[in-house]
Design goal:
This protein has helices at 25-34, 51-56, 58-61, 92-117, 124-128, 139-148, 155-160, 178-187, 208-216, 231-244, 270-279, and strands at 10-14, 39-45, 64-75, 78-85, 191-194, 221-225, 247-250. The protein is of the alpha/beta class and 290 residues long. Helix 10 links the parallel strand 6 (221-225) and strand 7 (247-250). Bound molecules: adenosine monophosphate (AMP), fe (iii) ion (FE) (2 copies) and zinc ion (ZN). Zinc ion binds at residues 13, 15, 70, 195, 253.
Length: 290
């Protein structure tokens, strides 16, 4: 493992149009270079589809790439997101689970469109027109279709109305229990980090005792520096990470045009990244040589 320079800028959570971001993976890498980042993690929802294109952009952009994904999970009825870094993309059990989640997301999106279509001018073809082939389909793509149809102004307006989790059109989808997911990620050689676990805007938050249970099962870290965390949550999660010996990470959760989040608005220390790379099955793709 090569050491990182002292002032290295690291953003460990971003999305491309392989899921619900709006940039192609190569565009995201170029945007990361413009934002002054040295290292970026591509963590599309439930897919590694963007990895190859992003990897190919490393030499031209000069930005190092951490290959990852953001796994859709549940704790009871609550939705939980788990980042996986540097896992073997061919390991069969994790692959089967991500395939199953993407499949379930597709039927769930079709179901939501059926419900919405009873009251608004929206068809499944409108949603398909907003997605790249093979993308992990999510509510943001339905939102883009509603925007294109003039039903709502933008993604955020869709999420506070028609697509809200409290809306009559909302349908949940299959996702693995987060405790099992930590095991799946570790078994694939990945480094599991809880994404935005203190995001009050997303409903209830994961109790401390559940985080303790996840840590005992192999959780490696907690994303603390994230725009959805207020000062109180940052303090709580920082203390919890210290208590449990977990890594602390930070990131933008950039989605391109789809969200206001800006690349580099949250960052991770080089020590935390070095620990992640030590624990992962595959290497960080670097533009520089030893
Ligand atoms: P889903 O995974 O299909 O349930 O949709 C949730 C995803 O939508 C999250 O991963 C976010 O990336 C995205 N999202 C949530 N709220 C908003 C918002 N207000 N504007 C844009 N995207 C959002
Ligand atoms: Fe997303
Ligand atoms: Fe997330
Ligand atoms: Zn995310």
């Amino acid at each position: 493992m090569q050491p990182y320079p002292v002032h290295v800028r690291i953003d460990l959570h971003t999305h491309s149009h392989a899921s619900d971001g709006t940039d192609a993976p190569a565009e995201l890498m170029a945007a990361a270079a413009r934002a002054g980042l040295d290292v970026v993690a591509l963590t599309d929802h439930d897919t590694t589809r963007g990895w190859d294109e992003a990897t190919a952009a490393v030499p031209t952009t000069g930005v190092a790439l951490v290959r990852g994904l953001e796994l859709s999970c549940r704790w009871g009825p609550m939705s939980v997101h788990l980042l996986s870094y540097l896992h073997d993309p061919h390991e069969p059990a994790l692959r089967a689970e991500t395939d199953a989640i993407r499949e379930a997301r597709l039927s769930r999106a079709r179901h939501m469109v059926d419900l919405i279509a009873a009251d608004h001018p929206l068809t499944w073809d409108d949603v398909l027109a907003q997605t790249e082939p093979g993308t992990t389909v999510g509510r943001p793509h339905v939102a883009d279709a509603l925007v294109a149809k003039g039903v709502v102004a933008d993604r955020s307006a869709a999420f506070t109305s028609i697509l809200s989790a409290r809306s009559p059109y909302y349908v949940p989808h299959h996702a693995p229990d987060v405790l099992r997911a930590v095991g799946l990620v570790r078994a694939a050689g990945g480094v599991p980090v809880l994404a935005h676990p203190g995001a009050l805007t997303r409903g209830r938050i994961l109790p401390d005792d559940v985080v303790r249970e996840l840590a005992a099962a192999g959780l490696a870290g907690i994303e603390v520096d994230h725009r959805d965390h207020d000062a109180e949550q940052r303090a709580r999660l920082g203390a919890l990470a210290a208590e449990l010996g977990l890594l602390v990470t930070g990131a933008s959760d950039y989605h391109g045009e789809g969200k206001p989040n800006l690349l580099g608005e949250g960052t991770t220390s080089r020590e935390a990244l070095a620990a992640i790379e030590d624990a992962g099955a595959i290497e960080v793709v670097r533009p520089w040589r030893a």
